[in-house]
Amino acid sequence: MMNKKVIVIGAGIGGLSAAIRLQNAGYQVEIYEQGNQPGGKMHQLKADGYTFDVGPTLVMMPSVYREVFELAGRNPDDYIPMIKLDPMYEVYFKGDPMRHYRISSDLVDLMKMIEAKGSKNSSGFLNYLKSIYERYQVALKYFITRPFRCPSDIYNPFMLYQAMKLKTFSSAEKMMASFIPDEDIQRLFSFQTLYIGVSPQKGPSLYNIIPMIELLYGTWFIKGGMHTMAEQMAKLFQELGGTIRYRTRVEKIRTAGGKVIGITAAGQAIDAPYVICNADFPYAMRYLIDDNAVRGKYRSEKIDRMDYSCSCLLFYWGVGGKFPKLATHTFLISEDLDDNLKSIFDGRKLGDPSIYLHVPSQSDPAMAPEGKSSFYVLIPVSELGTAAYEWNEETIDEYREKAYAAISRIPGLEDVRNLVEVERIFTPENFEAEFSAYRGATFGLQPTLRQSNHWRPQSKCMQCEGLYFTGSSTHPGAGVPIVIEGGRICAEELRRDEKTDGFA
């Protein structure tokens, strides 16, 4: 095979996944990254001895993480040592009193919790697992792991029959209610759609595979936090001979005559016959491509009409003290969850936000100074195009107070506001400015029914030879393992085209 040059825009997880596969297959791959470290939103902050992951925190489908290293003949344990978490997480439903659940992936412990709610709930839960597992197998084989280049890839009798098996027309919330009578249990296993930025009220019922994956395969923690995965992917890529150019912003994808010819980065034109864009797809269409023929249907008007995921407000707190009874992951669910979810997606300020508390130092004490703890506090909020309020000090102060009020109700954290010694903040505006996330939407395009599978932007640009896309706004979607899979699809699409060009 000829040693063909490939440029990758962005060292996010999708870009790294594609780059590793192509470099390992003999291509000459260069990554251009605007930031100073790999991972995109899988970034890392350090402050006064505390370490915080900026974005993703929870490892699901560990086999997908491991496969990245195995494909290059490496032992994943040498790169990303993991521990399995038990409990996977704890959940508090706000109210008076708060209702507390400890969620284990041990089926014996889990069934004790659910059977305490009555046999209708426990039998309904088992029926849910059976139903969603069967649909997951169909999705995995025919949708998540394959591209859709043209209408005939989906609009044929066989694939339409498979699509019917997915039963995607109900929402995640409604599907769970159809199996389980108890409202708390329903919500324990439907709020996870927020992991990929869509409300369980609107997300297709297929996304109830997320809690199923947690329950069947566990949740895990990587030593050093999630950024370790990004660092080690970058390390592997460089071991294979690849090049990463940090602090180098790409200004333009250069095209001519229906073909990609390279990029412009830091004011310099760099030629290449193949370009993979790991920048957020809507951002790339608006700002990196200036030829409407290449944009195709994704012109500015279309981009602005699309549905975007929620964003996030994050407080990173360095906390004096250790809390031995605290789980690594804790969710505090709004007392009026329906209104909370509607507010996120209609742009109102949140009266009673749901909050996710991640304490990485519980699983890796090295992520905080001795005797102290790193707190990662996330509030799902509206993306910038939807929000009906400004991100100013008043807004941040208001949400900080709500976070303190909620977290201080967790046993052992009553005095948390007086224990915070270090604070860093990330708003939707930071996601937009630092990661080029369009409208600050943390998870990219919302994975609604009409923005999933063949309706979602695909890896291969059909209007421009040699141009490909990967990342959370492209098929198969958001979530770290799914984005890793998207990188695989992207690399395979490029190799598929090169073979037809006669180079392989």
Describe the structure.
- With 504 residues, the protein is α/β, with parallel strands linked by helices.
- Among the domains are: 5-42 and 224-306 and 445-501, FAD/NAD(P)-binding domain (3-Layer(bba) Sandwich), CATH 3.50.50.60; 106-217, no CATH class.
- Helices cover 35% and strands 19% of the residues.
- It is built from 16 helices and 19 strands.
- The chain has helices at residues 13-24, 62-70, 107-115, 119-144, 157-166, 172-179, 183-188, 209-217, 227-239, 281-288, 292-295, 300-305, 337-346, 393-407, 428-435, 480-501; strands spanning 5-9, 28-32, 44-47, 50-53, 82-84, 89-93, 99-103, 220-222, 243-245, 250-256, 259-265, 268-271, 274-277, 311-320, 329-333, 355-358, 372-381, 420-426, 467-469.
- The strands form five sheets. Strands 7-6-15-16-17-14-18 form a seven-stranded mixed β-sheet. A five-stranded parallel β-sheet has the order 9-2-1-13-19, with helices on one face. It has a three-stranded antiparallel β-sheet with strand order 10-11-12, with no helix packed on it.
- Helix 1 links the parallel strand 1 (5-9) and strand 2.
- Helix 1 (13-24) runs parallel beside helix 9 (227-239), helix 1 (13-24) crosses helix 16 and helix 4 (119-144) runs antiparallel to helix 5.
- The radius of gyration is 22 Å and the shape is globular.
- The protein starts with a strand and ends with a helix.
